[in-house]
């Protein structure tokens, strides 16, 4: 009976994994198809619904070596912005979370509740005020408009606070008795203990900025400064949509995130578990 239940469980898990991976597999194989073949077998049950009949690298060549849409430059732009935002988020939000978790100051519960209330505000509601602020500061069409407004993450503060709250107060007291200042305690004791949570927040932040589309579309006008998701959308126009190039571009843009997640997967799962966030 137990063997049957275990077999049924693993079979169900494999089916769910196959359903989840099927669109990705179709995207990767479709990126090697000519445009004329892309939807030719979509209504059939033959193996060619996934496996290309005419295998070609032309879609990747058209994407990577395009002079009109310099895709490698778009990847570089996105890496720079996402990396800068991630570093700033980890530094600023870890300090704020440590203050809310371990320091005593006036109005701390009220301030924390105010911060948490910002989590229920949809991002679309703040688009117009943020755009007007960027306009008044003269930051439109610059990377400052992409990096600086994203430095504060309310969710990041909440998540790290949950983790920092589990650090024993005795450990901080021992560091203070050894002569360590508060910044030294934070850098030498707290942050090393919070590596899984920091990596988890870093992955979430990097992925969120890597996939950002609406905000870069609004504040960046220079085509050569644009982010990767906006660049992928540029393959679709009033003249038509080049789905083969879109699939190739999406496959390329997925590889860095996939490698990053696979490399840091162990820390990501550990950070989610230890920070008290269940899902």
Automatic annotation (TrEMBL):
Topology class, membrane: Multi-pass membrane protein
Q: Which UniProt keywords apply?
A: Cell membrane, Membrane, Transmembrane, Transmembrane helix, Transport
Chief place where the protein resides: membrane
What InterPro entries does the record tag this protein with?
A: MetI-like, MetI-like_sf
Its domain of life? Bacteria
Whether Repeat counts among this entry's keywords is no
* GO biological process entries: transmembrane transport
Q: Which residues form the signal peptide?
A: none
Know the name of this protein?
Carbohydrate ABC transporter permease
From the record, give the transmembrane residue ranges: 12-32, 79-100, 112-133, 145-164, 185-207, 246-264
| Compartment list | Cell membrane
Chain segments annotated as coiled-coil in the UniProt record: none
Q: What are the residue boundaries of the ABC transmembrane type-1 domain, all occurrences included?
A: 75-264
A Pfam match? BPD_transp_1
Assigned GO CC terms: plasma membrane
Report the sequence similarity comment from the record: Belongs to the binding-protein-dependent transport system permease family.
